[in-house]
Amino acid sequence: MDAHTPDRNHVLRLAEAHLAAADPVMARVLATIGPCRLRPRDDPFVTLCTSIVGQQLSTRAAGTIRARLEALLGGPPSPTALAGVDAGDLRAVGLSGAKTRYLQALAQAQLDGTLDFAALASLPDAAALERLTALPGVGRWTAEMFLIFGLGRLDVISLGDAGLRRSARMLYGEDTELGTVSAPWAPYRSVAAWYLWQHLDG
Predict the structure, then answer these.
(1) What residues does the HhH-GPD domain cover (predicted)?
(2) Would residue 58 be called left, alpha or beta, if left means φ above 0 and alpha means ψ between -120 and 50 degrees?
(3) Span 120-154, pLDDT tens digits
(4) What pTM was computed for the model?
(5) With b meaning 16 or more CB within 10 Å and e meaning fewer, what string describes 163-193?
(6) I need a surface site. Which of 19, 104, 116, 124 has the fewest CB within 10 A?
């Protein structure tokens, strides 16, 4: 499904209605923030690279490094550009040695066909997570972010995401367990996660 089709918009409206009916706290958040604007990004390789760059960094720090990386590569990262650039130049933009290796391994995996985004898109969530986490540098959080922002999956909740946990505690109380409070949000937990992130940013 294309990210911008009426079908996608219809599904998001269904998700909003479900969340509002299932959870009065979420209903108030929806009323404050308005319609969900969650859309899968256009280029899955760039999306996965972005998640790797952002691992264990603040949003601001990750954005700074992404901008430097794009300046170095002459645009968003591509497999050919990453595979051809010197590792020292990648580290010079602020990437750790480990992230440099991960990005170049990811580029090589797509170039040699080990990483097939079309095949990933056809897999159910659990199988896609397993396939992604087999890649160097792709842990559970990175894989979950890719399912949400790369594949547009609607029912993913990243229990290890610090921002989601913090937002949930702000809304539901300091003793809140994200896994418990998120149960009524299924099958639209990705949409609920988007609202939690928006609430935190706001």
Answers:
(1) 53-201
(2) beta
(3) 999 999 999 999 999 988 999 999 999 999 999 99
(4) 0.86
(5) ebbebbeebbeeebebeebbeebeebbbbbb
(6) 124
How many CB atoms sit inside 10 A of residue 15's CB? Answer: 24
Task: Please enumerate in sequence order all residues whose Cβ is within 8 A of that of 169, keeping only pairs 6 or more positions apart, or say none.
Answer: 176
Tokens of residue 186, six digits: 């299924």
Comparing 8-17, 28-37, 51-60, 158-167, the range with the smallest average pLDDT is 51-60
In the chain, DSSP finds a helix count (H) and a strand count (E) of 13, 0
Sketch out the chain's domains with CATH numbers: 8-39+161-185 (no CATH), 44-151 (1.10.340.30)
pLDDT at 4: 46
